[in-house]
Amino acid sequence: MSSTAVSLNAALLGASLCLAGCGSLRAYEGAALPPSARAIVRADPSFSAGLPVEVILRRVDEYEVPVSRTAVELRPGPHRFVVDCRLREAGAVTRFVVDAEVHAGGSYRLVADATGRGCRRVELR
Fold first, then answer.
1. Distance CA 77, CA 91 (A)
2. CB 63, CB 16: distance < 8 Å
3. Are 57 and 44 spatial neighbours (Cβ–Cβ below 8 Å)?
4. Contacts of 68 (CB under 8 A, 6+ apart)
5. pLDDT in tens, 23-38
6. pTM (predicted TM-score)
7. What mean pLDDT comes out for the span 28-51?
8. Which of 5, 43, 54, 65 is the most buried (most CB within 10 A)?
9. What is the gyration radius of the CA atoms in the chain, in angstroms?
């Protein structure tokens, strides 16, 4: 098998694994809520392809977020997010705690404020 075929197979396997696991985690008890009654918060994939800054969601409230998950579904209200901000070029990882309120039907993203030396803060937008 040629090196091109091996590379293509590896890329397809990686994409398949991501599609199988890269999704949202329901971080609340009870029956699933319709999109209009819940909020979704997104972060970066833990194995993003060369992004200079990565925001990786580790925990929301009492729920650990597996590295295979890039988003969480939440009930409206206040929540606590534990995130790692990784600056690839500097090799720096900084952990942040973000306290924020989400609203029903809302779609949010954890975003880093970073310089060439590291992450200064992460906020929910």
1. 35
2. no
3. no
4. 21, 22, 46
5. 899 999 999 999 999 9
6. 0.78
7. 88
8. 43
9. 16
Tokens representing residue 85 in the block: 């901000």
Q: How many CB atoms lie within 10 A of CB 59?
A: 15
Rounded to an integer, the average pLDDT of 93-122 is: 94
In the chain, the amino acid numbered 6 is V
- For tokens 């991501």, what's the residue? 18
**59-98, pLDDT tens digit by residue?**
999 999 998 899 999 999 999 999 999 988 778 899 999 9
Residue 56 has pLDDT above 70, yes or no: yes
For the chain, the DSSP string reads --HHHHHHHHHHHHHHHHHHH-EEEE-SSSSPPPGGG-EEEE---TT-SS-SEEEEEEEETTEE--TTEEEEEE-SEEEEEEEEEEETTTTEEEEEEEEEEE-TT-EEEEEEEE-SS-EEEEEE-
Sheet with 107-114, edge to edge strand ranges = 23-26, 69-74, 39-42, 107-114, 119-124
> Residue ranges per domain, the chain?
23-124
Q: Look at residue 47 in the predicted model and tell me its pLDDT.
A: 66
Residues belonging to the chain: 125
